[in-house]
UniProtKB/TrEMBL annotation:
<dbReference type="InterPro" id="IPR006016">
    <property type="entry name" value="UspA"/>
</dbReference>
<dbReference type="Pfam" id="PF00582">
    <property type="entry name" value="Usp"/>
</dbReference>
<feature type="domain" description="UspA">
    <location>
        <begin position="1"/>
        <end position="134"/>
    </location>
</feature>
<feature type="domain" description="UspA">
    <location>
        <begin position="148"/>
        <end position="286"/>
    </location>
</feature>
<dbReference type="InterPro" id="IPR006015">
    <property type="entry name" value="Universal_stress_UspA"/>
</dbReference>
<comment type="similarity">
    <text>Belongs to the universal stress protein A family.</text>
</comment>
<protein>
    <submittedName>
        <fullName>Universal stress protein</fullName>
    </submittedName>
</protein>
<dbReference type="InterPro" id="IPR014729">
    <property type="entry name" value="Rossmann-like_a/b/a_fold"/>
</dbReference>
Amino acid sequence: MTRPITAGVDGSEESLAALAWAAREAVRLGTPLRVVHAWRFEPRPEAADRETQERWVRESVAEAVAAVTGRHAGLEVTTEVLEGDDVETLVAAAADAGTLVLGSRGHGPVVGFLLGSVGQQVIAAATRPVVLVRAGNRPSDEVAGHEIVVGQQGEPEDSAEVLRFAFEAAAARGATVRAVRAWTLPPLFAYSPASLKLLDDAGGLEPYERQALDAALAPWRDRFPGVHVVEHVEMGSAGQVLLSVAGRAQLMVVGRRARRTAVGARIGSVAHGVLHHAGCPVAVVPHA
């Protein structure tokens, strides 16, 4: 069964931008589009009863869907208005999706995203990729020459799902993949005789990192021979290196390993930093 592209909408400008992006992505990939709205009844002076509020919600969702179907004739769209907690509803929707697309507020091209608690909790709990789209994102932002920038780290299997997502996105757009591997000098005590031998065989730290990136990319180059790849290996923190090339990106793809703390879920410093400061949509892909 083909998993749909799922957009979470709430009537805000940000969620409408996310819906528009999700519709374009569904057309590119040839998949259905699913539109989900989570709501909870709260008595208000202008709509004190449940039926009135639900009608308003459904009318708002229908209006948003009509706008995208008017731009994409033939796109298969289903809508669901679900009563319940925002985070729980969206996480459940993500489980059945190819990708969940959400809106995120922005402070302008420099500051980037303002990631609210709902977005952070959904990203941390979702088992499928989640894409954050800022208000103001337009089809013209997805132009030829703009890349799919993806962060790679660790061994090939560590970033397999992240690279899969990036290559599939690039293939659908005819875009270049810029694969970024950042590295830093490890503390001396981290070296072992085995690791020193690997570094010596590679000719040093940077050549070793380049070989590691090439090994991670090899199976995806074979699977997507038509996708042009640029390898980018740079010394520095992963978040800073990724953001340094964000100006070339129409989509940024990063991995995440969520961890639980006493104050809630955390998604990792790299994903968190990129989500707050990248100007383009950002896809956060759970590691296998």
